[in-house]
From TrEMBL:
Protein name: Ferredoxin-like protein
UniProt entry keywords in alphabetical sequence: Electron transport, Iron, Iron-sulfur, Metal-binding, Nitrogen fixation, Transport
Pfam families tied to this protein: Fer4_ETF_QO
Superkingdom, natural source: Bacteria
The organism of origin for this protein: Trueperella bialowiezensis
Gene3D superfamilies documented for this protein: 3.30.70.20
Family: To ferredoxins from P.putida and C.tartarivorum, ferredoxin I from A.vinelandii, ferredoxin II from D.desulfuricans.
Record bears the keyword Iron-sulfur: yes
Function: Could be a 3Fe-4S cluster-containing protein.
Entry-linked SUPFAM superfamilies: 4Fe-4S ferredoxins
Record-level Gene Ontology MF annotations: iron ion binding; iron-sulfur cluster binding
Residue intervals of the ETF-QO/FixX C-terminal domain: 18-93
Amino acid sequence: MSFNLGSVNERLSKNVFHTDSQPHISIDQERARATGSGKRLVAVCPAHVYSENDDGTIAIETAACLECGTCLVVADPGVLTWHYPAGAMGVQFREG
């Protein structure tokens, strides 16, 4: 018996994101640049929440956040301020 579960991207596309009026992630741009954390965030985030602007600052698209915590593991202390979105906001997983 075999199952076709689809690709990871196909499965993740079924998730629903409820955007909070207040972002749940913020970044200290100076510290991110000084420590190299910004480039690590861009490289490892599975949801591509982080991207690098032409001026080297890091842009954040919190509406795509999977709340997995990968960014907290790779960022140096003090680079990110991160908390779970309030109430029923954030990601709602439709398929594991």
